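Researcher: I've been going back and forth with a colleague about how pepsin A might be arranged in three dimensions. Neither of us has a model we trust, so I'd like an independent prediction. The organism is Gadus morhua, in case that matters for your notes. Sequence below.
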Amino acid sequence: MMKLAIAVVAMLALAECFLQVPLVKVKTARDTLEEQGLWEQVRQEYPYNPMAKFDPSLMVTGEQMTNDADLAYFGVISIGTPPQSFKVIFDSGSSNLWVPSVYCSSAACNNHDKFSPSRSSTYRYDGKPLDIHYGTGSMTGVLAYDTVTVAGASIRNQIFGMSQTEAPFLQYMKADGILGLAYPRLSASGATPVFDNMMEQGLVTLDMFSVYLSKNSAQGSVVTFGGVDPYHYSGSINWIPLSSELYWQITVHSVSVNGQAVACVGGCQAIVDTGTSLIIGPQSDITSINTAVGATSSGNDFVVNCNGIQQMPAVVFHINGHKFRLPASAYVRQSKHYGCRSGMASGGSNLWILGDVFIREYYSIFSRAQNMVGLATAR
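Model: Here is an independent structure prediction for pepsin A. You can compare it with whatever you and your colleague have in mind.
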């Protein structure tokens, strides 16, 4: 504990040395499709399987895909010399960086920015194939090297993927590509993750990054590399040791509503994932939680009365001796076209995912130095 306390003091002392990427909160693919009256058709055609990127046995084929229609945050990076800019999802649940390329003719590439190797003097071809499946979709492509700039810091010889095909649902996403922030063992084709090169090249003072997601404003969200930003949280940081150093995986001891354990009884495993929009859990547990808070099943969703949100109870995650409380205002999603729905859904696996619904309430710190996740109440 003494080492941890010293590390926290060091983080605060070095607060001015970190790198920050502003995240923009945009209209989600679901919102756009609902406005166009296409959501029900699209959700049937591309069903959502949030576990696609976590469980190899559940990976979809290249002909199918899943969608995470509620992802709302992206930041801008650049690749090449001179720089070519791309909007990316900063995803703590994967490890590869990839963007669309001029070699891609999929519909999803045609309405996004594409990387052009011929425009970069620092580009170097690798040629190894890349094939990745996410809850958001899938892509195939080839690997290359170039200078990648994140928050003004230039990462030399960073390996990245150039897409050649992208699954159809990605055309509805605002972001161009994905920047993975999980451990290198997870990386497809053995590609070194961006943050590992940031650490290796001395671009960050501390081997950690942290994520703040705004609740309502389109602005204000941020990824901080190299430390924590005290402006974005209040109270103390609760540090949780990882149960696996592949994803940012932790042990949850139980989930309760009104003081009664209703899910994860006896403990369960959860991944803190900035690249998943909802809270995902086993079907029986998710049904139990939603029933306990007064949500009712309706097709693929659990719906609630929009007029009764203030009276709904909090959902409490018990983690490492601490209580992480989610009020109804955090776990209920409101839509102009489809009313109010629960932000907790089934993933068809025993693994839990603590996505953006959770991270909006708790500033999340990912420490590679300590192999821990830190959680603090978000401002």
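Researcher: What would you highlight for our discussion?
Model: I'd start with this: Helices lie at 2-13, 29-35, 39-45, 107-110, 194-200, 283-293, 328-331, 356-359. After that, consider the following. Residues 1-15, 57-66 have pLDDT under 50 and may be disordered.
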